[in-house]
Amino acid sequence: MLNRKTIHLAVLLQLVIVTATIAQKLPSIVPNQSGTTKNNNTPRVQNSGTVRPASAQQPAVEQRTAQKSIKAPSFIPLSAAHQTYINKVLEYWQNKTAKVDRYRCKFERWQFDTVFGPQNTFKTYSTGLIRYADPDKGMFKVEKVLSYQAPRSPQEKPRHIAIEGVHGEWWVCDGKSVFEYDFTNERLIQQILPAELQGKAIKNGPLPFLFGADAAEIKQRYWLQVITPSNVKDAVWLEAFPKSQADAANYLKVHIIIDRRDFLPKGIVIFDRNFVKGKNHSRTVFNFRDREENFNTTFEALRIWEKNFYEPSLPSGWKKVVNAAPTRQQRQANQSGQQTPLNR
Predict the structure, then answer these.
(1) Domain membership flag for residue 207
(2) What angle do CA 275, 334, 117 make, to 5 degrees?
(3) How far apart are CA 66 and CA 246, in angstroms?
(4) pLDDT at residue number 21
(5) Quick check: helix, strand or coil at residue 305?
(6) Is 288 or 50 the better-scoring residue by pLDDT?
């Protein structure tokens, strides 16, 4: 069953899928060690983890019933002009994301982990593929993982290398179930989705501004401010802090970078809930390359495209595990931190 770490990593997955579905021909983004993001060619990153879909995530309607108030960030309240600007950004964003039917891209991911990884660079660097079909089909596949290796002597430099036996994540969602390859235990895990998470309702996960970008939902669940650096002219940077304990348990905040040319996100940074500037730089940064949305295709090519979302084949010698859809009570208990089969 899905544990708390899995639910946290599901947030990353949702960010990846829908940001990918709405990003289009955007400049490269590379993180630096301090926790900001800038356009350059010197990557800095940390913390290896597992990206998984929010297969058992509580829908937004249920989340609102279990929300607990948390302290607003220091920038609240916003000025009237600042709030009006954000409202316009969200309105344009919502209109744009509603038009995405098909999406494919390659991605880069840097994972920083100040606690269990190096202090001044990234712990892992990954590349892979994303496929998405509206409203509820997706594929996330890591094709390469490079892990940090500390220098063996003062004369050596640290390296990031591929390690035999280290596999990245690979999952497929067909709209009714999520299939995940568990390479460590040689299992293909099928997690059946609750009925309310099938179809368009699956977009009502922990980060609504990336699944359908519903402006009202975003403002209800997040405190937002514009943080665009003064030297950046081609993008709008938003910072989002969760308003509920249910969301805050998964991450401290999220940075979303929206390209002014097409008003679509071109990068995201998900900050670990223990992130502290200057002390703990744990976060995950995504960049998307070779992006295509609503691309034209022949009937035969479309059939090949749809195979991305079929149930994956079971490798020889592996075991298939089928997990029933969690009940509403189980999902609510998981959100409130109670011990259930979902988070033991």
Answers:
(1) yes
(2) 30
(3) 8
(4) 34
(5) helix
(6) 288
32 lies in some domain = yes
Q: What pLDDT does residue 8 have?
A: 35
Asked whether residue 124 is assigned to any structural domain, the reply reads yes
pLDDT above 70 (res 89): yes
The total of structural domains in the chain comes to: 1
Beta bridge partners of 105: 130
DSSP class of residue 226? E
pLDDT of residue 16: 43
Helices (H), the chain: 4-22, 60-66, 80-97, 215-221, 245-248, 299-306, 328-336
CB-based contacts of 291, cutoff 8 Å, min separation 6: 20, 23, 24, 25, 26, 103, 104, 105
- Tell me the pLDDT band of 334, cut-offs 50, 70 and 90: low
Answer whether residue 227 is part of any domain: no
Pair 30, 115: CB distance under 8 Å: no
- Identify the residue with better confidence: 2 or 90: 90
Partnered with residue 170 across adjacent β-strands are 141
Structural domain that includes position 141: 4-65+101-214+275-336
pTM for the complete prediction? Answer: 0.76
